[in-house]
Amino acid sequence: MHMLTTPPPPPPLRHRQLMREAEHRARFEWGYREMCLEAACCNLDAINFYKRLGYTIVRSDVPGTGATIVETRGFYWEVLPVEKYLMKRRLSGF
Q1: Does a structural domain hold residue 45?
Q2: Neighbours of 28 (CB within 10 A)
Q3: In this structure, is the dihedral angle defined by the CA atoms of residues 61, 65, 69 and 71, taken in order, positive or negative?
């Protein structure tokens, strides 16, 4: 007996699938024509990921309006406010 197993897709593919599912629901179940999201300005991986999906930076906000980073210092964590980007993408292309 032979069993063929397929490993799960790499994380970027799962993230892309999750975003496409959210966009699909926003467009076809709720009627939205665009999707907006926020990303910390220092999170370059996330910003580049969203750009590859077609999102553009609309504006940036000042630190303290929602985005944070966590820095570990020995036995305690420090939560710091950071600047964030507002990004959006039109959903009419489905």
Answers
A1: yes
A2: 11
A3: positive
Residue 5 counted as domain residue = no
How many C-beta atoms lie closer than 10 Å to residue 22's C-beta? 12
Identify the CATH number of the domain in which residue 33 sits.
Answer: 3.40.630.30
Instruction: Write down the pTM of the prediction.
Output: 0.73
Q: Residue 32: which domain range? A: 11-90
Q: How confident is the model at residue 2 (pLDDT cuts 50, 70, 90)?
A: very low
Cα gap 39→83, rounded to integer Å = 9
DSSP helix/strand/coil, 12: helix
Over the stretch 23-49, which tens digit does the pLDDT of each residue have? 999 999 999 999 998 888 888 999 999
Query: How many domains does one find in the chain?
Result: 1
With tokens 């980007």, the residue in question is: 85
Phi, psi of 90 (to 5 degrees): -75, 140
Residue 4 covered by a domain = no
Question: Does some domain include residue 77?
Answer: yes
